[in-house]
Write a structure and sequence with these properties.
3 domains, 10 helices
Amino acid sequence: MKQFFRPSANLFAVISIFVSLYAVAGIFWGLAILDRANWTRRVNLPVEQPIPFSHQLHAGSLGMDCRYCHASAAISPYGNIPPSDTCVTCHHEIKRNSALLAPLWESVNNDTPIPWVKVHDLADFAYFNHSVHLTAGMGCTNCHGQVNEMPVVWKVHDMTMGWCLDCHRNPEKNIRPREEVWNMEYEFPPPAQQAVLGAQLVNEYGIDKSVLANCSICHR
């Protein structure tokens, strides 16, 4: 019977197998890198909103407290998006006729919510309680960054499980006095001093580090 393949075809077959394996591994490696990229996770990308609300103006220049709009964050698991009535308390008189506020008045007149776009949107399988973190001395800027300097809000952290666990395993480096939680201008002391202060606050606030890395803390 006539031989279709030369003996060298055996070497070619082996090489093809290894090349294919490396190609498949390279594809998975590339997808893993892409999944962790800031662009994929929407980090540092400003999120446009139906109303160009500027935190830089309201929380920065005007010095409005976070709790004026996000009142439930201190007392509930959720950091609420303010209802239109909250905006109207000021804008009934200030820039009332601005074309940029048309969606606000449409919301008020039709009794419909403004379709704000979520910037920090955790997966449904992850449980996060705002009030617990705030009570534990974790400031707004720890997770949200300096929103008082953002004309348009964006994510400053990817908020992956690894990022959360890094803090859960070592809360001392991120904790601050409770009275400074809402202070957007708070500056942490040098690392050595923060380590001492952090350990003191963790003990004072009754934070049990031994359970913070348990799966059930965030996955319920």
